[in-house]
Specification:
The chain has about 775 residues and is mainly alpha-helical. It is built from 30 helices and eleven strands. A five-stranded parallel β-sheet has the order 3-5-4-6-7, sandwiched between helices. A four-stranded parallel β-sheet has the order 9-8-10-11, with helices on both faces. The protein has a two-stranded antiparallel ribbon with strand order 1-2. It is globular and about 100 Å long. This is (Fe-S)-binding protein. Keywords: 4Fe-4S, Iron, Iron-sulfur, Membrane, Metal-binding, Oxidoreductase, Transmembrane, Transmembrane helix.
Amino acid sequence: MTGPLQIVLGTISVLFLIVASVMAYRAVRAMVRIIRTGQPDGTRWGPVKTRLKTTAIESLGHTRMLKWSSIGVAHWFVFVGFYGLFLTLVEAFGEVWNPAFHLPLIGEWAIWNLFADIIGTGTILGIIYLIYRRQKDHPRRQGRTSRFAGSNEGRGYFVEAVVLTVGVAILLIRSLKVSSDLTDAPGWSHPISGALGQILPDSPDLLTVVAFVKIVVSLTWLVVISRILNMGVAWHRFSAFLNIYAKRNADGAPALGPLLPMTSGGKPIDFEDPGEDDVFGRGKIEDFTWKGMLDFTTCTECGRCQSQCPAWNTGKPLSPKMVIMDLRDHLYAKAPYLLGEKTASETAPDYDVLKPSDEQVWASGYARIEGTNDAQAHRPLVGTLEEGGVIDPDVLWSCTNCGACVEQCPVDIEHIDHIEDMRRYQVLIESNFPSEAGVMLTNLEKRGNPWGMGGNVREDWIKELDFEVRMADGPLPADVEYLFWVGCAGAVDDRAKKVTKAVAELLHTAGVEFAVLGNGETCSGDPARRLGNEFVFQQLAMENVETLNGVFEGRVPGTRKIVATCPHCFNSLGKEYPQVGGEYEVIHHTQLLGQLIEEGRLVPVTPIDRKVTYHDPCFLGRHNKVYTPPREILDSVQGLTTQEMHRCKDRGFCCGAGGARMWMEEKIGKRINVERTEEALELDPDVISTACPFCITMLSDALTSKKQNGEAGEHVEVLDVSQILLRSMQPVAAGVQGAASGPGVGTEADDVVGLDSAATEHDPKD
């Protein structure tokens, strides 16, 4: 069945294949060379079996994509169609020459034909749905709230058009084989193409043309991406496997929880005796590790991270997606200079002539310099528009480290690590950071807490209790089960001190033997580390480790227990202190209280007629996956009505305090804590509950503002989960240490702790 048409189209197909293959090989080789210019990181290769298992589960199971179920299902069919139906492209080369061609061995195999029919149809339907979603969520409709705002829409359209065309071609070829009687496969093995074949003509030549179109479109796609190395929406089809394999945690957990220690040349920096050529943080694109560069290359521009980012959602210039895009585009534009193919001029160009585009006005970190040139080679990694910076300072310092971007990314990009590494360079090398954060750092260095309070105030809360709290003086006695890490906020902030007292009373009631460090405790170092001052963090951490090791002297692993009320301390002590030699079993107070309730050592007895909504602290929830214990505590309290905000658990919305933002002014856009508080108030709650002192401060401040403006009832309060539990442990109107929220808790004279407020009103349907 080979005629002139087949010979001409077949010859063109083979020649095009040769050209496209050569271009693809050169492109892959160039990408590998570019990525290898990054700093070494030897932690990303093993254990091989675990990493391969994680890669298989995330890829084939689409576990992260399916966080958005309908889009995940559609993408799964497109994904399986791309790889699973690759043989149909091989078959098309034979079909161009001979329409009756079938793959050897499997061409007429019924199972293969059924698979191709179902997946081919699924690919078409999947890409149609994804095209629909791109248009439905398009920036022209949703503006800044669109997750595609800032993405390269043209590239997305191109990829979608290619997938749709190839999918249709696969189904048409199979249908034409049926209509032209060129297949002996049983009818049940091609139900869809068989039905379509009933209305198509008997035309082997048309089959050849369709196969040729399939080849040309596929190879055109390959040629285009070979010319555009930063086309992540296409290249992620290959790089995503490597990026998932090389993710920070081999077991599949996202890159949340601890920050990685600072490294240079692939080795942790010794801050007591750093090397002369050590690189502190990331001040140039070549300072990133090869894994960072692979991250940049893999970004699909899907915007899931952007849609969840609290900074972006409150009008700030930070988009995690565009940070990665900007770094990627800069990397590939500067590549000839990194590879030694070009030499930059000795002096940097004048950047003050640059004018931002319309996009750059609302996304100040967007690309300001295009192409490969001396300006690209000299531009600073972080800098203003006038300085030609790749990342704007307002972008860098808007991050709260909430982890929403990392949690949602389907290809495991480690946004927070890259942002923090750039912050480290700005703080340690450039000394360039928000001025108010400098006050916090000074307080940490001189006073051991961010507020600058004297060390002797750390024991004041103990004086307000009616029972004795044991002080750790040397190694803990054998009967002491837990060291209670109070934290800076829990010791010096009035609102957090109430939580500290509530937890202490609950532990005392349950008969848990615990001790505190008192004035011997200092800041965990979290604010310094999240700001980017690794040096101060190391100092504080090593000081605390020395103290803690003395307290736990002689104790074997499993008995070095710490309970903390602050999720930031909980994360630092449990996840980051092992980096400096501190190995402890750290538990959050909601976890311990939940255990005590389960064991029957704490029994809530007093019903509390309150409507509560719970706010997930980012460093307790997303960073450490503690979602259930706080909710179980609330569920154990009789009379309590709970309702979730629509953004909760792994999609919870930040309070705005993380990433050292607690000590920085929020000058751009809407305040994050106000946004979150408004979301809570939409449920008409009596109590906004949480389990973090920073969250309590941020939500309380926003609630106070709302009350002053008449936008919230005076009876509404912000309480830690432990405070609510403590109220339920006491008879009505009993005075409870730490349970009250402040003046005006209730409206009745004898309602000391606000257990029966007459001001509580609900919608009848509630």
